[in-house]
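Deliverable D2.4 — example input (structure tokens):
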């Protein structure tokens, strides 16, 4: 089944984060090794599907695969390691050997929680905590675009610095989310990676003046990453940064986040609050952009940090503690810092669930706008956003979601789309009221989705027949049943119509036939 709502010649491509990362592995690396873990297995499946004889797999699993990759890296080959979850914990000793030897390998970590076969969204990067204490560079991607850029840049930076690099991302919120990305030309990628890195696969012996050599080595992490990102933008037209700041200059409140949580303070999601705060996104955890962070946020009355790695016992975490350390260095006029006049209070925001609601940030802004802000906030998620759950029969669901995301991206609309499990996808958009719609065409879809439906929710039935027992079950939940049977070629238009209902998104300019279907859906979903 092919569903298209846009010009076939469009350069906008909709991919999941896993698919984008797999593309970068296939076009940027000589070999890849599947160490293990739920997220790594999913990423490995995407790599296998598109490899077509390019990046070659390393035989074996677990520590055996890692040891084989160690030999390939020592021989001068570029190798991507795929590991996550408990499998990553089991090979930490072996990965530490790679760090100690200074081998240029890249570890890709699709971070997730317990390996139960499911992958519900999580705002934490629990797997990243396992490798942050090792001497390796660390990047955290917030989107599929950053994932492509960091996967390629880490390949160059690891060779330039002669040290491993880690690229982590949340499996659900980034890896399984649909994004409109423009992939670079493979020839440009090869030209970017052809630039010579270190002089040899193995690092040279430390010079006589070991202290001076080690001091220079500390700075080389930042130089290697910066040079790789600059060359990537010039050679392959893919731009990304380890640090980004937007919004009001000298604002009273600064918001800091890393990973997928950073997407929720885009102006489209924050609304009018976006103009009154400074928004900082940190993607490079090592080297950490301490100077840039301190220079950007020190004038704020309070700094709110979305804590990706909270401390179990305490009020902070890895990110908020690192931000505090950067401010302390700056106020002490540490070499390399320009110096600041004060240290603002840093408030760690620890979310109590899924980070998909801009209302969390607005509540945090109100909580810290006091004389003595708290050290830690635990945020809830009651806000105004619209969720469209798409549960159509395969193979219809995936093309429908991709087509909807592609059309919204071309129209400049903000949307987050997630595909958590086979047969289940969800689109989240800001709206005037909390609203949930299930778009389905088969009764089995109602079995897994009933937990999210309740009073005020709607089941949009696109199938030919409406089973009476399903209608009765939905009504018992307090939800409303709306039957609008349309052909498969109009399923994507029906999803777009659901997005425009109740202020979920502004009306889109669709071709007449599609606009008619979307308009019918939007009118049918309005409150009775």
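Example output (designed residues):
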């Amino acid at each position: 089944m092919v569903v298209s709502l846009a010009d076939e010649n469009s350069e906008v491509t909709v991919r999941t984060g896993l698919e984008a990362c797999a593309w970068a592995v296939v076009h940027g690396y000589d070999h890849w090794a599947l160490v293990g873990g739920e997220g790594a297995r999913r990423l490995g499946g995407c790599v296998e599907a598109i490899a077509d004889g390019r990046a070659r797999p390393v035989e074996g699993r677990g520590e055996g695969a890692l040891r084989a990759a160690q030999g390939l890296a020592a021989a001068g080959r570029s190798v991507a390691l795929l590991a996550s979850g408990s499998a990553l914990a089991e090979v930490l000793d072996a990965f530490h050997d790679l760090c100690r030897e200074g081998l240029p390998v890249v570890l890709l970590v699709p971070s997730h929680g317990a390996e139960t076969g499911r992958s519900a969204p999580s705002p934490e990067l629990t797997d990243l905590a396992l490798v942050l204490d090792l001497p390796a560079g660390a990047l955290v991607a917030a989107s599929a675009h950053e994932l492509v850029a960091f996967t390629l840049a880490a390949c160059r930076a690891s060779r330039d610095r002669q040290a491993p690099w880690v690229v982590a991302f949340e499996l659900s919120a980034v890896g399984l989310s649909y994004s409109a990305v423009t992939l670079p030309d493979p020839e440009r990628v090869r030209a970017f990676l052809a630039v010579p890195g270190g002089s040899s696969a193995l690092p040279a012996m430390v010079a006589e003046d070991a202290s001076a050599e080690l001091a220079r080595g500390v700075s080389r992490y930042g130089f290697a990453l910066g040079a790789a990102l600059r060359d990537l933008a010039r050679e392959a037209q893919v731009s990304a940064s380890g640090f980004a700041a937007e919004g009001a200059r000298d604002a009273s409140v600064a918001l800091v986040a890393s990973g997928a949580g950073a997407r929720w303070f885009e102006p489209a999601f924050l609304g009018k609050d976006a103009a009154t705060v400074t928004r900082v996104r940190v993607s490079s955890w090592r080297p950490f952009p301490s100077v840039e962070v301190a220079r950007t946020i020190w004038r704020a009355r309070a700094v709110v940090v979305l804590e990706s790695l909270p401390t179990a016992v305490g009020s902070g975490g890895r990110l908020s503690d690192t931000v505090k350390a950067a401010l302390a260095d700056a106020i002490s006029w540490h070499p390399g810092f320009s110096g600041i006049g004060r240290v603002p209070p840093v408030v760690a925001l620890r979310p109590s669930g899924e980070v998909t609601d801009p209302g969390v940030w607005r509540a945090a802004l109100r909580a810290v706008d006091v004389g003595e802000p708290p050290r830690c906030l635990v945020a809830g998620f009651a806000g105004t956003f619209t969720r469209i759950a798409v549960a159509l029969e395969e193979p219809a669901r995936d093309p429908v979601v991709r087509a909807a995301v592609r059309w919204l991206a071309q129209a400049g609309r903000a949307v987050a789309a997630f595909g958590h499990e086979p047969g289940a996808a969800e689109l989240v958009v800001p709206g005037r009221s909390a609203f949930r719609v299930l778009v389905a065409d088969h009764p089995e879809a109602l079995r897994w989705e009933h937990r999210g439906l309740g009073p005020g929710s709607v089941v949009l039935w696109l199938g030919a027949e409406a089973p009476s027992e399903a209608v009765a079950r939905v009504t018992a939940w307090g939800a409303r049943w709306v039957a609008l049977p349309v052909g498969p070629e109009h399923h994507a238009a029906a999803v777009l119509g659901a997005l425009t209902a109740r202020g979920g998104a502004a009306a889109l300019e669709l071709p007449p036939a599609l606009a008619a279907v979307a308009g019918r859906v939007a009118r049918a979903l309005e409150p009775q």
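Residues 1-11, 197-208 have pLDDT under 50 and may be disordered.
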